[in-house]
Amino acid sequence: MSKTSKHHTILMPSVEEDKAITAAARSDPDAQPLTPKQLKAMVPLRTLRGRPRSESKKLLVSVRYSPEVIEYFKSTGDGWQALMDSVLRKYVARHSRST
Question: Is residue 79 part of a domain?
């Protein structure tokens, strides 16, 4: 380890060592190289991270609710915010038709 850095120094293998490592890896039947078709089918990890994109975009807002309203929805368990959104959407749909 370098005295100026807390990072480990990476030592690259020589050409001969690299050939020996590659030969040993290829001789292992459980560790065969990927085919070009398999490589082409791979997807970058960052595209798989996080929550799937929603079909309906939602807006981030700051709003205040009565404590009993929040307490009720939180008591319904995981997904309470989605449930609250669903209830409000139904209310809007019901009241939009009558106007």
Answer: yes
